[in-house]
Design a protein that fits this description.
Elements: H1 3-19, E1 29-34, E2 39-42, E3 58-61, E4 66-68, H2 77-86, E5 92-95, H3 99-106, H4 116-119, H5 134-152, E6 163-166, E7 170-175, H6 178-201, H7 210-221
Antiparallel strand pairs: 1-2, 1-5, 2-3, 3-4, 5-7, 6-7
Length: 240
């Protein structure tokens, strides 16, 4: 992929976030990576979505050095870079402050897997990180948030759970490319909303039983997936 095409894809992803209602003002950002060159394209910091153009998208190397662009990259760039370094199969990252997912993050609560809608996208609950400590805040805040996410996924498969809630902050999601990362972000917000309503109706509600979780997740993402018009498997272990 050319870097120009990468910038255009990242621009489109950011605009889709805006039109999906997941971002307001200048909140949130989407990025994409060229793995061959180890170059990341990301939204510039503090630029209104209404004024954003493909030419505004900033290119940085994997260490965060600006390669191309007149504007400063997103303040969350270091977090995105940590995810790209730790999760080698992802090609796009999205961060929003969407209402419902952020509410769970601010409550410092993982989103339980209450039903099959959730299970269609995520193999289990959406984890929430621990609250970042003062030392990390003062050290290199955005970098440390990335490390916090990576630490949260030490025992979680990032292929099967493509999102996380950063405690007191908001959600991050990822995918094979920026388009998938946006789709996951949209799904996450809907799941966060329905989970809140579900627990309000039944405060003693428990996670979906494993047989239903397996059925709904694996019929879309497993080795023998049959949902849709072809094998939609996105887990490397299950690709033929």
């Amino acid at each position: 992929m050319s870097l120009l095409k990468l910038k255009k894809e990242v621009y489109k992803a950011n605009i889709r976030l805006y039109h999906s209602g997941l971002v307001t003002s200048t909140f949130g950002n989407a990025s994409g990576i060229d793995r061959g060159r180890s170059i990341v394209a990301i939204k510039p910091s503090g630029v209104s979505y209404k004024k954003l153009t493909p030419g505004d998208i900033v290119l940085v190397d994997i260490e965060g050095n600006k390669i191309e662009g007149k504007l400063n990259p997103s303040s969350d760039t270091r977090t995105h870079l940590e995810l790209y370094k730790a999760f080698p199969d992802i090609g796009g990252v999205v961060h929003t402050h969407s209402n419902y997912a952020t509410a769970w993050a601010q409550a410092v609560k993982a989103i339980p897997c209450f039903g099959t809608t959730h299970a269609d996208f995520f193999y289990g609950e959406i984890p929430c990180t621990r609250v970042i400590n003062d030392r990390s805040i003062l050290k290199n805040y955005e970098l440390e948030i990335g490390k916090l996410i990576v630490d949260t996924f030490k025992s979680i498969d990032y292929h099967r759970i493509k999102a996380v809630l950063v405690a007191c902050h908001g959600p991050f999601s990822w995918g094979e490319n920026t388009e998938e990362a946006v789709k996951i972000s949209v799904a996450l917000e809907e799941i966060a909303k329905t989970a809140l309503y579900s627990i309000m109706i039944n405060p003693s509600l428990k996670n979906i039983k494993k047989s239903l979780l397996d059925k709904h997740y694996l019929r879309k993402h497993g080795r023998d997936a049959y949902y849709g018009q072809g094998n939609t498997c996105s887990h490397p272990e299950h690709k033929s």
